[in-house]
Structures are given as structure tokens and as C-alpha cells.
Design goal:
Elements: E1 38-42, H1 46-57, E2 62-66, H2 69-82, E3 89-93, H3 101-117, H4 121-126, E4 134-139, H5 144-153, E5 157-160, H6 165-176, H7 188-193
Parallel strand pairs: 1-2, 1-3, 3-4, 4-5
Helix pairs in contact: 1-6, 2-3, 3-5
């Protein structure tokens, strides 16, 4: 009694590939099936919203939608309050009723900063929040003035509207791979030149 054998088994198990019939497959340009990015789309134009949703859903993401900046702030606040995963990417329209994109971004950045400063690095990693949220402004009114406003508000870059599906997919993959960094700024004009 009280005696026994302790056995440790070490197994080398290769990473799984996407299951047969998986909705996201690398051949289709999707992202790995085992980590679906969490995205918030903030857009008041229902036509543009349909295009963005259709493009992103085909990329195998988990998608939330807000119709104006105040809804976006509320979405982020709920996630902060729950202590769970924050968004990997927020696509933020600039001009919306109730609250514009710049104001919403400032409020979201303040919430994110308070949340991140109250957690240890391990707690952030365990919740899937090792990287800060990436916020990308969407606007048909591009140019240096808008880009400066977006940068000042705390956005990480801009994309022009209407958004080309291939530009959205490329941006999503770059965010997923960690190529967009908080504190750098990707301009719409610079990014557009990469896709023509």
C-alpha cells in the first residue's frame, strides 16, 4: 500500500493539418483552421458591410459587427469585462452616426491600455491577448489628412473604401502572422500600390 510505479511517456506528435473537408483550407487562401482570428467590423453602410462580411467569412474568421463607434466600444468593453480574448483586428469606418471612428478608437485604446496594464504577460498570453489589437481605419476619403487623424487616434493603418477583397485578405493574413505592429502605421496609398 502506498507504493507504485510512476511512468512518464513522451510522445512526439506532429501538428495536425486541416481536417478533410475543413471549411478553411490553405489551397483556398484561408487561414489555419486551428486559430480563427477574432475580428470586429465597424461599418454603418450596409452594402459595404455585406462585402466585408462575405470576404472575411470565407477566410474562416470569427466575426462581430458594430454599426457605429459606440457599439464598437461596447463590444470591446464586454470582452474586457469578461477577461477573455480581445479582437485580433478591428476594421473601423471613419464617418458614422452616434460616434465616429477616431473617437471610438481613442476609447478602445484607453480600455485596452487599462486592461493590459492590469494583467501579467502570462495572463495576457493565456487569454490569447499577447499582441495588442490592430485597428485599421476604413475610409473613402483617404489622403494625408485622414491618415494623420487615424494615426493620432491610435489606429495602426488605413484601407480605402470600397475595400478590394484581395486587399482585405492580405491584411488579415498579415495581422494573423503578426506583421502589423502596434505603433507602426500602414497607409492606404502605400498598401494600394502593392496590389495593382
Amino acid at each position: 500500500v502506498g507504493q507504485g510505479t510512476s511512468v512518464t511517456v513522451v510522445l512526439e506528435i506532429p501538428l495536425a493539418s486541416a481536417p478533410e473537408g475543413s471549411e478553411v483550407d490553405a489551397r483556398e487562401g484561408g487561414l489555419p483552421w486551428y486559430r480563427q482570428p477574432l475580428i470586429l467590423v465597424v461599418e454603418d453602410n450596409h452594402f459595404q458591410l455585406r462585402i466585408v462580411k462575405a470576404t472575411l467569412q470565407r477566410s474562416g474568421v470569427t466575426l462581430d459587427v458594430a454599426l457605429h463607434g459606440a457599439e464598437a466600444v461596447a463590444h470591446v468593453q464586454r470582452r474586457v469585462d469578461a477577461g477573455g480574448k480581445l479582437y485580433d483586428l478591428i476594421l473601423m469606418d471613419s464617418m458614422m452616426p452616434v460616434m465616429d471612428g477616431a473617437t471610438a478608437t481613442r476609447e478602445i485604446r484607453a480600455m485596452e491600455s487599462a486592461y493590459r496594464s492590469s494583467k501579467t504577460g502570462d495572463e495576457l498570453r493565456d487569454a490569447g491577448n499577447a499582441r495588442p489589437m490592430i485597428i485599421v481605419g476604413l475610409s473613402a476619403e483617404g489622403g494625408p489628412g485622414y491618415e494623420q487623424e487615424a494615426r493620432d487616434a491610435g489606429m495602426d493603418g488605413t484601407l480605402g473604401k470600397p475595400c478590394r477583397p484581395e486587399t482585405m485578405r492580405k491584411t488579415l493574413k498579415e495581422v494573423h502572422r503578426g506583421e502589423w505592429k502596434r505603433g507602426t502605421f500602414q497607409s492606404a496609398s502605400k498598401r494600394a500600390s502593392l496590389h495593382f
